[in-house]
Amino acid sequence: MTTRESIEEEARRQGAVVFGVGDLSLFEGEDPRRDPKLICPKAERIIGFGIPVPRGLYKTMKDETQFYTYTTVGVKAIDEEMMEIFLFRMASLIEDEGYDACLQRSYPNIRVKGDKTCNPETIGIYELQYASPVEAGKPPPDVMIDFGKAARACGIGMMGRDGKVINETYGPFMRYSFIITDMPLETNAPYTKDLCAGCDACVRACDANCIDPEKGLDTWKCWEHYNKARGYTLPRTQWGYQACLCGKKCDIACWEKLTGKKL
User: What is the predicted pLDDT for the residue at 135?
Assistant: First the structure.
């Protein structure tokens, strides 16, 4: 019999170091374009998983010895290869018990209709531009959950000022995924800590002043700096991920402040 404990045990065996279960009632009043209940209407729970990005990928950027490995290994390989296999294995445990498992991973080049948080002139963003709701009161496809709110609901982290989900142990050095399910699982308490309170480490670390202490991350400005921080622009790659030329100084500063260690 599959239980919350057996799901968590298998998740940790497959590489997750963070695990939590959230109650979907916490999403009441959410923007319909991001409401998990409109993805899986029968669902009552959302399960959150975190797989760490190796610290060495940030260390090479800090030391200015390698920049492309962060995006190709720390983002693409985890999200598009490891995380997909991981989620399928987790889903099998749930669906073998007769429940639904709707898998959610990060899709950085896909946006809900009308989301202009990235400059479409500098990055190819996929959205169903001409899609319309199937009936009144429903959003146009595709519905995509807010990872920051999902992490809070699962009790595993919060959205930081620099636009990344962070938690007190791993900071932003983590990739997250979620499963929306109707399986009745015991929930975690929502994450209530404010890890950004009184801390401007990421604000000070950004060379281009992309992070405002009150407003948070300017995503358009950040994307430009991410790609041109070293005075030139790299050509597009066949895999769609460009080297992180800014070196993610904001993430490194956040991790160092939260852990009290130097990378």
Answer: 86
How many CA within 13 A on the CB side of residue 41?
1
Tens of pLDDT, residue by residue over 233-254, are 777 666 667 889 999 999 999 9
End-to-end CA, the chain: 43
Tokens of 61: 């950027």
pLDDT of residue 132: 85
Q: Tell me the H-state helices in the chain.
A: 4-13, 55-62, 68-69, 83-95, 147-154, 201-205, 219-228, 249-259
Q: What per-residue confidence (pLDDT) applies to 102?
A: 97
156 vs 169: CA distance, rounded Å? 10
Omega within 30 of 0 (cis) for the link into 142: yes
DSSP conformation class of 96? T
Residues contacting 140, CB < 8 A, separation 6+: 33, 113, 128, 131, 132, 133
Cβ atoms of 190 and 22 within 8 Å: the answer is yes
As given in the structure block, the two tokens for residue 227 are 């790609």
Q: How far apart are CA 189 and CA 8, in angstroms?
A: 16
Task: Report, as ranges of residue numbers, the positions in the chain whose pLDDT lies below 70.
Answer: 118-128, 236-240
